[in-house]
Structure formats: C-alpha cells, structure tokens
Amino acid sequence: MTPQDSADQATMTGKVPSFSPGSTVSSALPGFVVLCLALQVHRLASAQFIVAGPDHPVIASLGGEAVLPCHLSPRMSAENMEVRWFRSQFSAVVHLYRDGQDQYGQQIPEYRGRTELLRDHITNGSVSLRIRNIRPSDNGQYKCFFQSSVSYEDAILELHVAGVGSAPAISVEGHQDGGIRVVCRSAGWYPQPEAQWRDLQGQILSSASEKISQEANDLFQTEIAIVIPEASNQKVSCCVRNLLLNQERESEISIAELFFPRVNPWMVALGVILVLLAVLIPLSSYCFWRQHRAKDKLQAELRWRCAQLYAVDVTLDPDTANPYLVLSEDRKRVRDGDTQQNLPNNPERFDPCVCVLGAEGFAGGRRYWEVEVGDKPEWALGVCRESVSRKGDITLSPEDGYWVVWLRGGRYKARTSPSTPLPVSVRPSRVGIFLDYEAGEVSFYNVTDRSHLFTFTGTFSGTLRPYFCPGLNAGGENAAPLIICPVPAQAGGNLCP
After folding, report:
1. Considering Cα of 399, then 402, then 404, then 406, what sign does the dihedral take?
2. Which of 43, 228, 408, 420 maximizes the CB count within 10 A of its CB?
3. Residue 196 to residue 204: CA distance in whole angstroms
4. DSSP class of residue 231?
5. Are 415 and 404 in contact, with CB atoms under 8 Å apart?
C-alpha cells in the first residue's frame, strides 16, 4: 500500500497509519497550503463591504445645518475603522474619525468648528456627518470613506445649498418707449433664482431687461425691469423664486394715472414762473424739500418693515447681569436696583459696568428685536462681541467690540469714535435693532414714528449678542425697566425694499 493509499484509508476509518517522517511531511504539505489559502480567502471575503449613502441629494438652507448619512452593507461595526469625509481630494478632509475618536489635525480650515460625526449607530455601521452654519461654498459633492484593516470603500453624496433672499424692492425709474420703466431688485438668493413680472391674473409679462449677478458673498442678486404703457392702469407684481426650495417672494405695485400725466405740468409751471418768478422759486424749493423729506421717510419706514420680517425672540442672560440689575422671571425686563445682590462673580458677569447681554448669540444671518424704553432718562442698546471683557471699565465703540446707541443728558448719540449726535424729532418710546451680519450693519429705528436713527457699518467676526444698559436712574422697585417687546407678526408684508 502506498502512502497516499494509507492516507485515504485513514480518512475513511479515522485511523492514522505510521510512516516514516519524510514520507509524512511530503504528503501533508500540499493539503496544509491549500487549507491556509482557503482560510485567508475566507477571512478576506468575510471582511468585504460596500458603502451606501442617500439615493437623492441632501438639501440644506443657508445658515442652517445639513446631515449627510452613510452606512455599511452588510451591517457591521465601524468603531475600529477609519471614517473619512472629503471633497474632491482625499487630503481635503471635511471630517476624520480614526482610532476610536475624531481627528481634527488634517481638517481644512473652512470646516473647523462646524462639523460633528453622529455615531450613535456606529456599531451597526451607520454614521452621519452634521455640518452647521451652511454656506454657499458647502454646495457640491462629498465622499464618505470607510477603511478597515483589510479593505476600504467609499460612496458619493450630493449636498445642495439653498437660500431665499430679500423681498423684491420695486422702484419707478422714469419714462421709456412711451411708458414707465419699473425695476424690481432682490438680493441674497442661492442658487441663481428665477424672476418674473406678473399681471393681476398671474399671467407672466414680458420683461424689458433682466440681470442676475453674483455678490462677493457668493449669493445672487437679480434685477428685472418692465415698461408699462401710459394707457395702463393695472397692478403688476414682481415674483422671485428659488426653484430648488420651490419658495418665492413677491411684491406688487399699482400704476395709477397720476404717473402718466397727459399735460406736462412743467410747461404750465414755466408759464406761471415767467409771471410770478419771485413767488414760485421759493415755493418750488419748499415743495421739493417736502417731497424729498417724504421720500426719505417712506424709504426709512420700508426698511424698518423689512427688518421686522427677521424678528427673533430675545431673552436676557442672568449670568452676565451686573449685581445691581434686577431681571424679571421671564427674562424680558431689566431695571437698575438700589442695592447690590449677592451673586456669583463668574467670568461672564459685567462688573462694575451696569449692563447685561442677551442669551442668544448670532454668528450670521439677519436678526431684529424691539425694546421699550418709555420715558427713561438714560439707556443704551445695541450689540457687542461675545468675547468682550466683562470686568473693569469698558469703552463703547466699534473698535472695542460694541455697536451701541444711547441716551444721556437728554441727548441721543451713536457711540462711534468720536460719538455721532443723532437728530431726533420725536422721542422714541420703543427702539428697534436690526443686525445684518453678512452686510456688516447694525441699524437702529425709532418705532414710535417709524424713522431711521442710525446704522453702523463694518465687518463682523465671531458671535454677537444683544446689549442692554437700563441706566443709573434712581427709584428702586419703581425704576422704569427696559422691556424686550414682541414684534407684530403682520409687520413688513410685501413692501420691503
């Protein structure tokens, strides 16, 4: 019997025949090699997986957040894998998870502080990437990459960023081709919007010109014009639509016959001026002044109504309040007290400056709130950087991180360097504050007569918070408070410029 015959017999009977050592090694070696290869192939096959993402683009709004989901198939734990999110290049890391924790050393600067890996279900091979404070530059393709000790795969995801811009501003810009040229403008859209003129029945009207341009902040602004015939007395509307979100903003205007006079009033006025020149010159000057003043007042009121569309709920932060300040339970009122309260001297608290910050912080977008000041003889309102020093004396100026308007000694001033006196014809009992972060503007409005008080312009960085100082007016419990007021929901409408 040969060694191979003996091995076959041993396989069938379970008995192992005895051979010489050399004969045993030479006959068992091929089987051992085959067994090792089979085990290695089985190990590699068992470690194979695919990476899957959503089968449709993820849509996110500007200033909001996006969640990009990704998972392994078949389900298996990814706790000990490398999970990498990147854009066009492998080294352009959006977020990296390795060795059981997030790694931020290779993250590209534009995503620092804005990403979070959601790994509640990582043991099932499911993770999601959250991106906060969405920007236009976040739009596009992402890759979700998983790597184990023996294999790696990735999946491609698409993020579509969308933003709705300002309400259309309609203006009449003179005569053209026997009619009146009317122009509609709107800004702050992403991606490129669609703009249309419509009649009262909703039918689309032909435009005279249309221009869409991209601003420095990558958002789009549109300008569309129409020429309305002199014989027309119709109402037309301008509609700007975000096709991705299927959301639109619309404003309308009615062209009355007074915009299309049959007789040129200047010819009649010229004949009268030749007779009564000495009288009409000052009268005309006065009329122009009144018209210009009325126009400025109307534009200021329209800007204020537009600002009210961005109303937010602001509350006071007790951790920042000076010990002499008394806050209401709902954190909507603050007044100066007679005595110092026994409060923790935490780093956030202002001392000795008698002021308090809003609990809400803003690092982008547009925000509006209103404060009742009543007949208080002193107050200061505005915004400041969250990083300002809370201890010791402070200087209220933009250079020191404060954008503030105040009342002191019966005079209203904007705290620029040096201060700017504000001409106030009607004493404001309520003040509106409008922050446009991307435009670098903080505007103040007299809600009492709907007039514009002042606008700071500049460039913002970091988080801004509302600033309140009720003033050092005596009275204890009877001292008049500053009151954060609700903004009427119906304010603004379609009249915003």
Report:
1. negative
2. 228
3. 7
4. T
5. yes
